[in-house]
Amino acid sequence: MNNKPLLDDLQLFCTVVRKSSFAASARELGVSNAYVSKRIALLEETLQVRLLHRTTRRISLTESGDIVHQWAQRILDDVVQMGEAVSSARAEPSGLLRLCTSSGFGRNRVGPALSALALRYPALEIELELLDRPVDLIGEGFHLDIRIGAVTEPNLISRRIGRNRRVLCAAPPTSPATAARTAWPTSPATAASSSANATSSSANGPCKARKARKSPESAAHSRPTMAK
Questions:
Q1: How many other C-beta atoms lie within 10 A of the C-beta of residue 117?
Q2: How many Å apart are CA 142 and CA 50, to the nearest integer?
Q3: What is the β-pairing status of strands 59-61 and 52-54?
Q4: Bridge partners, 61 (sequence order)
């Protein structure tokens, strides 16, 4: 058998068997009697067997036709189940999702969002790593990397998912004596020459004090970027 039967012809054949009539099958399918007869003849030619006994009053299956009918029903049922499985997979995510992001943004923003995602899709297994360093997505096996700032790697696809706003704040002197000996900056431009200290927090330790070395901006804006 050089040619394979078409699914549409198998479906039509099963309809003819169920209806026991070419005319009734044609009415149900919205085609002509001649079309039904032609497609059955082509199916018989493809399989190289006679499928139906035809008389003026009724249609019945041959022995080969009965075998073909059983297999056709299984094949068509499998096709339906395949479509349902694909639709279900599209509708509800499942499997492993590995992603990474920076420590602070991951704890404050990404972590809570992923917790809600896991509750919504229980079949989805999520692994989040908080890394304050450049990440090789392919080499380290990550699917997504949520970054603050631009993506420079030309082989990655990036999408902007939101804005992250950072604000530089300063506290007033705690005493007149401190105010007298400290040159407090009056604008971002004068901060470079100030003796004031700035604080920074670390993911692995407590806050540390350091001298302000260069002029900061009064407010910095960056964009969280999702790279994959």
A1: 13
A2: 57
A3: antiparallel
A4: 52
Instruction: Supply φ then ψ for residue 179, to 5 degrees.
Output: -65, -35
Query: What distance in Å separates the CA atoms of residue 144 and residue 101, rounded to the nearest whole number?
Result: 9
Q: At what angle do helices 7-19 and 63-91 cross, to 10 degrees?
A: 120
- Please state the pTM of the whole predicted model: 0.44
115-137 residue pLDDT tens = 999 998 898 899 999 999 988 98
Query: Would you place residue 216 in the very low, low, confident or very high pLDDT band (cuts 50, 70, 90)?
Result: very low
Question: Which region holds residue 50: left if phi is over 0, alpha if psi is between -120 and 50, else beta?
Answer: beta
Strand order from edge to edge, sheet including 124-130: 124-130, 95-101, 144-148, 224-227, 158-160
Query: How deeply is 100 buried, as exposed, middle or buried, from its count of CB atoms within 10 A (0-12, 13-18, 19+)?
Result: buried
Phi, psi of 227 (to 5 degrees): -110, 145
What is the signed CA dihedral for 172, 174, 178, 183, rounded to 10 degrees? -10
Six-digit token string for 151: 């993506």
